[in-house]
Amino acid sequence: MKSITIALAMLLISSCSVIESHQDWGFMQRVGGLTVAGQGKNPNWLIVRGDVSGFKEFSVKPTQVNSALALKYIEAEIKESTIGLYVVTTLISDKYNRTEINGVDISGIKKGDYLVQYLNPDNSTVDLKKVSIY
After folding, report:
1. Which residues does 13 contact at the CB level (< 8 Å), separation at least 6?
2. What is the per-residue pLDDT across 51-65, written as a single tens digit (0 to 9) for each?
3. CB pairs under 8 A, 24+ apart, for 73-80?
4. What would the mean pLDDT of 78-85 be, rounded to a whole number?
5. In whole angstroms, what is the distance from residue 40 CA to residue 45 CA?
6. Is residue 73 a contact partner of residue 110, using CB atoms and an 8 Å limit?
């Protein structure tokens, strides 16, 4: 009985890494893509639109539907004149039940012109849009 409990615990722990996933640009394209609108009224916020469910079109027509996935977070990495974005999904739950992407925090960014890129898990990038931050 003890070995079954240990095996189940190990299975649960190992499945946690599968639950959270840094999605690549191919996935984002299949679920409708992303659009970058630019900086909003809040200077710490970059408006980015998308949806991991695949039910809405943003930059391309979606070809994949994901009823079991939710947005865990969208991250921005600011380096010199580049804003790198990536989306992390997880299994939908009471805690994580949103699928829409509305924007990303860019707190601390300096004024200037930036190239917004999507950062893939393999460190490759996809250029999305040039934006001016004021």
Report:
1. none
2. 999 999 999 999 999
3. 74/48, 74/101, 74/103, 74/104, 75/104, 76/46, 76/104, 76/105, 76/106, 77/119, 78/106, 78/108, 78/109, 78/114
4. 97
5. 6
6. no
Could you read off the pLDDT of 3-53 as tens digits, one per residue? 555 544 444 444 444 589 999 999 999 999 999 999 989 999 999 999 999
Q: How far apart are CA 129 and CA 134, in angstroms?
A: 16
Phi first, then psi: give them for residue 4, nearest 5 degrees.
Answer: -70, -40
Q: Is residue 70 within 8 Å of residue 93, measured between CB atoms?
A: yes
pLDDT at 12: 46
Q: At residue 15, what are phi and psi to the nearest 5 degrees?
A: -75, -20
